[in-house]
Amino acid sequence: MKLQSLFALLILGLSCGTLQAQVNLKDLRVKPDSVISDSKQENISLKNIRPIVPKLDLEVDYWKHWTRFGIMANQAYFNEDWTGGGVNSLALGFNIYHKSDYTRDNFNFVTELDLKYGKVKNRDQLAKKSNDRIFWDNKVSYKLSKNWSLFTSLTFESQFDVGYTYGAKDGRDTISATVSAFMAPGYLTESLGLEYKPSNEFSLRLGTGTARQTFILDDRIKPLTIEEYSRKYPDRDPIVKDQEQYGVEAGKMFKNDLAFQITANLDKNITKNLNIKSRYNLFANYNKINDPAHRLDLTLTAKVTSLVNVSLNGIVVYDSDVVARVQASESLALGITYSLPR
Fold first, then answer.
1. Among 152, 77, 91, which Cα is nearest to 119's?
2. Which of 81, 205, 219, 230 has most Cβ atoms within 10 angstroms of its Cβ?
């Protein structure tokens, strides 16, 4: 009986405790801002802080520059007892290439400088040029659409050194005649037209309004009339007609041509270490539009290391003002080339 009374009292106590907890929860729901904790709340003050922003003098650089220069060499040696044939030879050359590009919105300016010079010396022969070129091209363009632009350009071309023809006299290598020199010939070309440029690797210029000036400023190459020739070379056989050099008439040092010009440029990395660079130019004089001049320059460069390259160069030229036949040259060289930026 006592056990039952204790059990009843226990149930009654639990019921009273549950009822009291429900009353306390009801008070909290009615008064949500009630503070349960006895600790006092501290007032928190917020202050506006203005961070110090450093002043940065930043400017957009619209220029890009590329520079490349190198030295190429070829050498062959045979001692006196060598019976397999051959001749000792040494060939040296250098090249300097620079390109700057300024692009802002639809405006673009590009200047490109290409300088090459080389000589080869074979045993018992005079040293002869293996390469000689000065090329400086400047172009300003304004983009009309995604791939087409209106352009104008100014191009200068010539060479560094005197060029000769050679012959043999008494079994020795000798100079026969002087055929070229600096600014003999020299070319200055102005062109205006449309440019198609679908990518940075390829561009095609259509110069509908093109003028080219040909200069011969060296008296050794200047074309002579019959009378001038007889006075200059009294000991030689007289000529039967006035001379003409590089399209410049006798007695003159300058010629101007109006023409239509096509210029195509390709600069593409075939692989990570193999690059092809070419430039094709067609110059069609309006006075003889059916006999245009052509020039193709092609360079294939294979990178051996970061400094050592192997390059294959080829040039094909047809210009009836010089000679009415196709001229071609090819050279293969191993050299050191340094490029900027690295």
1. 91
2. 205
Mapped onto helix, strand or coil, the DSSP state of residue 227 is helix
Please check whether residue 280 lies inside any domain of the structure: yes
The number of folded domains in the chain is 1
Read off the pLDDT of residues 245-301 as tens digits, 9 standing for 90 and up.
999 999 899 999 999 999 999 999 999 999 999 999 999 999 999 999 999 999 999
Residues sharing a CB contact under 8 Å with residue 175, sequence separation 6 or more, in sequence order? 126, 164, 165, 166, 167
Q: Is residue 182 part of a domain?
A: yes
pLDDT tier at 213 (50, 70, 90 boundaries)? very high
The continuous run of DSSP H or E covering 8 comes out as: helix 2-30
> What CA–CA distance (Å, rounded) separates 248 from 213?
10
Encoding tokens for residue 268? Answer: 């593409």
For all residues of the chain together, what is the average pLDDT? 88
How far apart are the C-alpha atoms of 68 and 174, rounded to whole Å?
36
CATH no. for residue 83?
2.40.230
Number of H helices, E strands in the chain: 2, 16
Question: Domain for residue 2, yes or no?
Answer: no
> Domain span at residue 133?
63-217+253-340
pTM of the predicted structure, to 2 decimals? 0.80
Confidence of residue 78 (pLDDT cuts 50, 70, 90): confident
Report how far residue 216's alpha carbon sits from residue 246's, in angstroms, rounded to the nearest whole number: 8
- Banded pLDDT at 310 (limits 50, 70, 90): very high
Element housing 279 (H / E): strand 274-285
- 300 belongs to a structural domain: yes
